[in-house]
Amino acid sequence: MISDTESFTLAQHLTDSGLRSTPHREVVYQVILAKRNHPTAEEIFARVKALRPTISLATVYNCLDTLVQCDLIRQVNFVREPTRYCPNLHEHAHFHDETTGEIHDIAIPADLTARLREILPPGYAAEHIDLSFRGSVKK
Ligand SMILES: [Zn+2]
Question: 51: domain CATH number?
Fold first, then answer.
C-alpha cells in the first residue's frame, strides 16, 4: 500500500503541475514504489493489472507520462531497450548488469557530480546528468 507520505508527495507534485491525483495515477505510482527494479511499462502494466484488472495499457502509459512530467519518476533509457522507470529522484547512476539484466542504482558522490559539471563547455549548465554503466560481476 502507498504510505500517507508518499500519497501526499504524489498529490503535491500533481497539484504543482496543475493535475489531480486519480486512483489510476496512485496505483501506478504505488507499484513503482513497491518494487524498485526499474520496470518497463509492460512490467508495470502487468503489476497494475493484478490490482486493477480493468486498466488498459494506454492508461498506464498516460499515468507514466504524467508521473514523469511531475518529476515523481524518471525515465531510464538504454540503447535498443524499452524505456524503464525509476522512482529514485536523488542524483544517481545506473549499472546495467549484462548477465542478469538487472539495473542497479549507484549513488553519485556530490563532489563527483560537481566535477562532471565542470567538464561542460563554458556557458552551459546541466539540469540533469544521465550516467550509466554496463557490465557484470567481476570474475
Ligand atoms: Zn534508478
Answer: 1.10.10.10
